[in-house]
Design brief:
Layout: H1 3-31, E1 38-42, E2 47-48, E3 52-59, E4 65-74, E5 77-85, E6 99-106, E7 116-126, E8 137-146, E9 153-155, E10 160-163, E11 167-174, E12 180-185, E13 188-191, E14 193-194, E15 202-208, E16 219-224, E17 230-234, E18 237-240, E19 246-251, H2 253-259, H3 275-297, E20 318-321, E21 325-331, E22 334-341, E23 344-347, E24 353-355, E25 360-367, E26 373-378, E27 383-390, E28 392-393, E29 400-401, E30 406-409, E31 421-427, E32 430-432, H4 434-438, H5 440-454
Parallel strand pairs: 2-8, 10-18, 19-21
Antiparallel strand pairs: 1-3, 3-6, 4-5, 4-7, 7-8, 9-11, 11-15, 12-13, 12-16, 14-15, 16-17, 20-23, 21-22, 23-31, 24-30, 25-26, 25-29, 26-27, 27-31, 28-30, 31-32
The chain binds zinc ion.
């Protein structure tokens, strides 16, 4: 043997041994890995009503996903609701799937499960060869509550006498705690809240008929529980139709010259077009935007009745425009636009102090397009008052104000031709006729007496 041959042979052996061991190393890394799959149960809320989809996400970057199993355990009885096995990609590669999402529909009634507390149990295995070839296992459980019964609504307020463009209140008792309940008026929904009475099952909802909702409008109380079960109950009501006045507004070049420059900043791209087109943009588009801004503010409300007794009107003032006046705008003898006036215009001496109509919390202060400087007060349970065209604002956002407290001074900011107060009342996102809220007898008969009769607080 020569020297060369002697040194060559062991290297060859080492290479052969190394090559031969690659599959074993591969197996050790991929198929003998010891990390269990990661699982997640996707369920928005623990409440399961008539039917609910549960999503299970499984991830296993190592040997891949072998299988997933899910069951529901209620009252000592376990029902399998899902069993899935995923394919292998071969002995060395492990599972084909590294990440899966499986869905199962839980319908308690068809599974023969009773209402009550339960547990969703999920087990997943991977393609590892550990545990005598069964793979790494992971277990996860989630508490649930099966509720297939719809809430029952017991109306406490017996009859509701309503005017088109007017307000109302409904009181009802719910058989279970509901996150959503209230009154539907045509296609509008007015939420109700618990908490005003000693009895936490009594709910109260302020609602309205908008100025367009007449005699044929349907009203009902509705409730939806945490599991999504819904109930509807009829309301006893009578709707008094109202017709609203027509009003003609004559626009002049003097008015355009005096007012339109204030609005340039809202439509900078249109400021060199025709004055009439610019006015129409302000009167239509800006008006719509401003109302939407107010509706966003009035979508949130204090869950407490902050007001007491009749609402105040601007003292020593004359009505210049009424609620829901059907306005026709004329320019150069031609009809150029139509809008509806959603408040009452009150004129006194220029820069008159404006009292808060009732006790409330300041929900908005600031400039708002055609409304000019505006204050919005939240009186609780969705009832708001709005004061516009102010020359001065004396309150700050979030502040509590007492009935009669001065919140600012009248003016002619925004789209106002002269000094006056535009006074609006909203129930959630509907403008209502303020006259009802100025009337002590109306409030007593239609609101306060119903609340007082519903129970102690
Ligand atoms: Zn007005």
């Amino acid at each position: 043997m020569n020297k060369k041959g002697r040194s060559f042979k062991p290297i060859l052996v080492v290479i052969v041994v190394l090559l031969a061991s690659i599959p074993a190393v591969w197996l050790a890394i991929i198929r003998m890995e010891g990390t269990a799959p990661a699982i997640e149960i996707g369920l928005e809320s623990p409440f399961i009503g008539a039917s609910r989809i549960v999503t299970v996400s499984v991830d296993d970057a190592g040997s891949g996903i072998r299988s997933v199993w899910m069951s529901l355990l209620v009252d000592g009885r376990e029902v399998e609701i899902l069993q899935r096995t995923f394919p292998s990609a071969g002995f060395f590669a492990g599972g084909k799937e590294k990440s899966v999402q499986v869905k199962a529909t839980i319908s308690p009634q068809s599974l023969g499960l009773a209402d009550g507390k339960g547990v969703i149990r999920v087990v997943a295995w991977d393609y590892s060869l550990r545990k005598w070839g069964k793979g790494n296992q992971v277990y996860l459980e989630k508490e649930i509550r099966i509720d297939t019964k719809a809430p029952s609504i017991d109306l406490i307020s017996r009859s509701h006498n309503l005017a088109q463009g007017g307000s109302g209140v409904a009181l009802y008792r719910l058989s279970e705690d509901c996150p959503v309940s209230g009154v539907t008026v045509g296609d509008h929904f007015y939420p109700g809240y618990a908490g005003h009475f000693n009895d936490p099952s009594i709910y109260m909802a302020f609602f309205a008929l908008d100025y367009q909702q007449g005699k044929g409008t349907r009203l009902a109380a509705t409730a939806e529980d945490f599991a999504g079960n819904r109930s509807t109950a009829g309301l006893v009501y009578h709707i008094n139709a109202r017709s609203f006045r027509k009003d003609a507004i004559n626009l002049s070049d003097t008015f355009f010259n005096a007012k339109m420059p204030d609005f340039d900043r809202y439509f900078p791209e249109s400021s060199d077009g025709s004055r009439l087109d610019f006015f129409l943009k302000v009167n239509r588009e800006l008006r719509r935007r401003d109302n939407e801004a107010f509706y966003r503010i009035t979508a949130q409300t204090e869950k407490e009745i902050l007001w007491d007794g009749p609402f105040l009107r601007l003292p020593r003032s004359a009505n210049r425009a009424r609620f829901a006046d059907q306005r026709t705008y004329f320019y150069g003898g031609k009809v150029i636009d139509r809008q509806v006036h959603m408040g009452i215009d009150l004129a006194s001496t220029a820069q008159s102090p404006v009292p808060a109509a009732n006790r409330g919390k300041v929900a908005f202060t600031g400039e708002q397009g055609i409304y000019g400087n505006t204050v919005v007060l939240d009186h609780g349970f969705g009832l708001f008052t709005l004061y516009s065209h102010l020359s001065q604002i004396d309150v700050a956002d979030g502040q509590m104000v007492e009935k009669g407290e001065i919140i600012g001074k009248t003016g002619m900011t925004g789209l106002a031709g002269g000094d006056h107060l535009h006074y609006g009342i909203l129930i959630h996102q509907t403008y209502v006729n303020p006259i009802e809220w100025w009337d002590e007898a109306w409030i007593k008969n239609n609101i306060s007496a119903k609340i007082d009769d519903a129970g102690p607080r």
